[in-house]
Write a structure and sequence with these properties.
By secondary structure, the chain is mostly beta strands. The protein has strands at 3-10, 25-33, 36-50, 55-60, 65-70, 77-88, 96-103, 108-110, 113-114, 119-122, 126-127, 131-143, 147-155, 164-170, 177-178, 182-186, 189-193, 205-210, 216-222, 228-233, 239-245, 250-258, 263-267, 277-284, 290-296, 302-307, 313-319, 326-332, 338-342, 351-357, 360-361, 373-375, 380-381.
Length: 384
């Protein structure tokens, strides 16, 4: 099956005319493995952010305390955590803090309210300094649930008003949510605490998670008509292409899309039930496939610009009746638009164009073996 993208019509003699950020950060490094375009991402997403509202005060204590956070976004592997604090002390050099993450799976206080329980992450003690400051811990590598509690515990201070440190209170969160209470660890266990809404009990902090750029087949089944059906998962807002093959060497594009949601369902209506068929999905760079700058030259020929994901092979085709298509130009997309000339246009009263993505050949089948699913072995019937 050929994947066809964009159909254009050309008429004769006409020319178409404080340091905490809330930004999702994404960097892309492109490399090529044979004819395959491989995308390696170094990406992060801010999944909780509370640093815009006015400072409502500070909470200072030598006890361990913190806040339960409800994250936004898709990603839960925390790689960095930042918070604001106020140091009310004269530095002796031994003032430190420890950061911890907990699951809220501890003691049940009331319905659906549980204390911090399982420890997910604990930092080494690190130095804190007098006055208002911003602390950022990187390289964390901890997977957290959608709701978890972070805590801090300051050391090296007496806790008196002239020798203490505390977290800064701000409200509301810009990304994510938090309840109007905090958790404090007393000698007899955890207890919630609040100020009756004045101020609202939310601490200024930011949670940054690594973007999950993996691509996977979540579910494989045969529908009631025996058609192979796949639920495929990948990173939101990235471009994915799905291929099929009869021999693991020559691969034909089945589907190309930008993922608006993390999962989508795809059916292979071109399969033959008696034959083995292989599938794989991969990310490509997100440059759209386009035919632009259509021009009619003085000799009646046409010239067009085509662009698409760098390295992907394609053929530009033309027709006058939508029945018979002829090849105009075959190449692989480059970083810049490619200009193609259609000599056959000079004898045509009207001309339509489309781009067909070509098959690709993989020289080293072993390099992609772990990404392949196989029909019929990997597919279950709906009744199963």
């Amino acid at each position: 099956m050929k994947f066809i993208q964009n159909t254009w019509r050309v008429l004769p003699h006409m020319k178409p005319k404080l340091g905490l950020c809330s930004i999702r950060c994404l960097s892309v490094i492109l490399g090529i493995l044979g004819p395959w375009v491989q995308a390696q991402f170094v990406a992060t997403e801010v999944v909780y952010h509370n640093a815009i509202g006015p400072v409502a005060g500070t909470n200072s204590t030598n006890q361990e305390f913190g806040d339960e956070l409800i994250l936004e976004g898709d990603n839960r592997k925390v790689v960095a955590f930042s918070f604001e604090y106020n140091g009310q002390f004269e530095a002796d050099g031994d003032e430190t803090v420890v950061l911890r993450f907990y699951r809220n799976d501890g003691e049940s206080l009331v319905a659906n309210v549980k204390t911090p329980g399982t420890l997910i992450y604990q930092s080494e003690p690190f130095a804190v300094f007098p006055d208002y400051n911003f602390a950022s811990i990187t390289g964390i590598d901890a997977v957290v649930p959608e709701r978890f509690t972070f805590t801090v515990q300051f050391s090296g201070m007496t806790g008196l008003s002239t020798d203490r440190a505390g977290l800064v209170l701000r409200h509301p969160p810009h990304i994510g949510k938090s309840y109007d209470d905090i958790w404090v660890r007393f000698a007899n266990g955890w207890s919630p605490y609040q100020w009756g809404g004045d101020p609202i009990a939310n601490f200024a902090c930011q949670v940054t998670a690594a973007v999950d750029t993996s691509v996977s087949f979540q579910d494989l089944w045969l529908d009631e008509d025996g058609i192979p059906t796949m639920k495929i998962r990948g990173p939101r807002n990235q471009t994915m292409i799905v291929y099929s093959s009869a021999d693991k060497k020559t691969w034909s594009p089945m589907d190309l899309r930008v993922l608006k949601q993390r999962e989508f369902t795809l059916k292979d209506t071109d399969h033959t039930s008696a034959l083995t068929r292989y599938y794989r999905a991969t990310l490509i760079n997100s440059k759209p496939i386009e035919v632009t700058d259509l021009n009619i030259l003085g000799n009646g020929k046409t010239r067009v610009s085509v662009s698409g994901p760098n390295g992907m092979p394609f053929t530009l085709q033309a027709t006058g009746d939508f029945k018979t298509w002829e090849d105009v130009f075959t190449l692989a997309f480059r970083t810049r638009p490619i200009v193609a000339q259609d000599d056959g246009a000079k004898d045509a009263s009207k001309r339509f164009y489309r781009i067909v993505l070509n098959d690709v050949t993989v020289q080293d089948e072993g390099s992609i073996e772990e990404t392949i699913v196989t029909y019929p072995q990997d597919f279950e019937t709906e009744s199963e």
